[in-house]
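Action item from last week, closing it out:
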Amino acid sequence: MIFGRWKLAAMAVAAVAMTGCAGVNMHKGAVIDDQLVATIQPGVDNKASVEKLLGRPSFTGQFSDTDWYYVARDTKQVAFRNPSVLRQTALLVRFDQGGNVASIHRSGKELVASVDPSNRRTPTLGRERSFFDEIFGNIGSVGAGMAPGQ
């Protein structure tokens, strides 16, 4: 009877612990509806009609406002691990000088970059100095051999 209670308690603790490992799906950025994007036609639509369909862009071009970018990302995170990208969409709507849609480009997850830092230390050229060289290396060398005002 005591063994049965311990077994039941162990199963309850295991069930609670496993719920912490459940994945959390998240969506960040614009909501890009494929059917609405398919209705945008170059030469027919303009900035006002695109804004009505898709909303304000995530950001515009850096040097001109003729490029509108809509960016969306779906991720999954398990417990305390880094989130992994499930789906990413970047939609570029390019306008001509008159404000009409010139072209639409779509890209996906292939543009996600993985950056690997170099051992958390920046490689430099030159002499390696120890801790004590860094602290005591300049004693007596500041202003040595120089006349005042030089």
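Closing note: DSSP finds four helices and five strands in the chain.
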